[in-house]
Design brief:
By secondary structure, this protein is mainly alpha-helical. Helices cover about 65% and strands about 0% of the residues. It folds into two domains: about 160 residues; about 120 residues.
């Protein structure tokens, strides 16, 4: 039996071309009796031996990290990307903001526009700035929870910058509306067409209040140090811009009342001048007395206004007009008084003094029809 088994094994090896030698059995390697014992009835057949294969590195399935979990290095790299993208969007917003100064021809001394060159007189379209600002805010919301402390600090300061640009351009839009009403009122005053002035002054107050709310937001939701996180403007520019806003709000708080006083004074002056020119001297005397007081109050109010740069000359000119009329009103009061008593020489002397005061304001002479008429007396 052993002989047949050995020959069968050797024959199978040669048939398969196996190069391995098959060892012969030692006499001592006699199989046990159980090797040749046929299985009895009911005994299950033996299972072939199972080969155990050790898994290799390439066979192991990759293990995914839990969703939302990042290592510190990954979080910081992502944080740097978020901060960089937010700065880019804020850069776009800044460029759009100062671009309005370029559009209106307002530039700094070195030819480069800054935030300060966008003034109360600059036309703006605030959505061109608020759009990129909104994108920057959404980007900052993507900052990983495990970002570095420096990145969190940069994010906080950049949020302050978003407030400056967003609320700042909205401020510009509202204060520009107030400035337009100022120009409208000024035109009506010089044209002797003041019937619509009260409504315009009401709109000016409304626009000023809206601008003041934007300034309050900037002062409460941002700080000068926030500028350190942004390359386009520095802390000195931040402070100067906030001061510019404050000055505008302060000016437009005082201007409506001052302009209302100018309107009353000029309307009264025109009425008194008509009475004087028609030789109604008693009426003219009373009217010029009242008008003189009103014009002096209005002149003092205008002199106290710290007008924004683009409005300085206009406010100064109007104050000069008002002051000249106030001084002339005193002389016209005297001329009316002496005229009512028939003192011709005294009246002419007072009239000459009044004309001299009127000529002290070139703007009054050039733009006010009532002044031109009185100078021809």
């Amino acid at each position: 039996m052993r002989r047949r088994t050995l020959l069968a094994t050797v024959g199978a090896g040669l048939a398969t071309g196996c190069s391995e030698s098959i060892p012969l059995l030692d006499p001592d390697d006699t199989p046990s009796e159980t090797d040749n014992t046929p299985p009895g009835p009911g005994t299950p057949p033996e299972s072939p031996p199972t080969e155990t294969v050790e898994p290799t590195a390439t066979d192991v399935e990759p293990t995914e990290e839990p969703t939302g979990t990042e290592t510190p290095n990954q979080a910081e790299r992502r944080g740097a990307e978020v901060i960089g993208n937010a700065r880019d969007r804020l850069g776009d917003a800044y460029d759009a903001y100062v671009g309005f100064a370029d559009d209106s021809g307002g530039r700094g001394e070195d030819g480069t526009a800054t935030l300060l060159d966008v003034t109360v007189a600059t036309d703006v379209t605030f959505s061109r700035v608020t759009g990129p600002v909104s994108e920057a805010r959404r980007t900052l919301e993507e900052l990983p929870r495990r970002a570095s402390g420096e990145q969190y600090e940069a994010s906080r300061r950049l949020r302050g910058v978003t407030t400056v640009l967003d609320q700042g351009i909205r401020f510009q839009d509202d204060i520009r509306s107030a400035h337009e009403e100022f120009e409208f009122v000024l035109g009506r005053i010089y044209a002797d067409n003041t019937g619509t002035v009260p409504n315009a002054l009401g709109r000016m107050r409304t626009a000023r209040s809206a601008a003041a709310e934007h300034l309050d937001a900037i002062e409460s939701e941002s700080a000068v140090e926030d500028a350190d996180a942004f390359d386009q403007f520095d802390t000195s520019t931040y402070e100067a811009k906030v001061d510019q806003f404050r000055r505008a709000v302060s000016a437009f708080e005082a201007l409506p009342d001052a302009l209302a006083g100018v309107k009353r004074g000029l309307d009264g002056f025109r009425g008194a001048a008509r009475s004087y020119r028609s030789e109604q001297y008693l009426s003219a005397e009373r009217e010029f007395e009242t008008v003189g007081d009103e014009l002096r109050v209005a002149s003092d109010a205008l002199a106290d206004v710290q007008a924004p740069g683009p409005m300085t000359d206009a406010v100064s000119d109007l104050a000069g007009v008002t002051d000249a009329l106030a001084l002339a009103a005193v002389d016209f009061e005297t001329a009316a008084d002496t005229g009512s008593r028939g003192e011709r020489n005294a009246r002419e002397t007072a009239l000459a003094d009044a004309k001299a005061h009127l000529r002290e304001s070139d703007v009054a002479v050039e733009r006010l029809d009532v002044v031109q008429r009185l100078l021809r007396e």
